[in-house]
Design brief:
The chain is an alpha+beta fold. The chain is elongated. It has a single domain, classed as Roll (Thiol Ester Dehydrase, Chain A), CATH 3.10.129. Strands 1, 2, 3, 4, 5 and 6 form a six-stranded antiparallel β-sheet that branches. The model has no long low-confidence stretch (mean pLDDT 96). Strand 5 and strand 6 form a beta hairpin. It starts with a strand and ends in a 9-residue tail after the last helix.
């Protein structure tokens, strides 16, 4: 398996809580940023998704916090897609400090919503294959 897609983020002071560590909700923002960065790198824009009448949806997210992050810490947020055979897929992500220490592990279940029918499409991997200029970034 190849290395997962990764994007670097610097923890900003306003993202921290009263204890001085990254607010728990911001981990979701970092995960979402990495996902959209992967889509962009693969050639899948919001405009292309809308043009096809579909959009990605998050159905479930789990975060396991491992180490605290402080303002100024640089982290790499990874994203890798895992495909099954149904209407959903998994995204496996990690937030790692620059020294490699895992600060958080994030797993999410997603799907592709048909914006007209308001139902999940049967084969989300086919949508990504069709729209992507680099489907390999999705593990396809």
């Amino acid at each position: 398996m190849s290395e997962p897609f990764s994007v670097r983020v610097t923890v900003r002071g306003y993202e921290t809580d009263v204890q001085g560590h990254l607010n728990q909700a911001v981990y979701l923002n970092y995960a979402e940023h990495a996902r959209w960065s992967l889509l962009h790198a693969a050639g899948v824009s919001q405009a292309r998704l809308i043009g096809q009448g579909v959009g990605p949806v998050a159905l479930e997210t789990t975060i396991r916090y491992r180490r605290e992050l402080l303002a100024g810490d640089e982290v790499d947020v990874t994203c890798a897609f895992e495909w099954g055979g149904g209407k959903t897929f998994r995204m496996v992500q990690s937030v790692r400090k620059a020294d490699g220490t895992v600060a958080a592990e994030i797993t999410a279940v997603g799907g592709i919503l048909d914006l007209t029918a308001r139902k999940l499409v049967d084969d989300p991997s086919a949508v990504f294959k069709e729209l992507a200029t680099d489907p390999a970034l999705f593990g396809l």
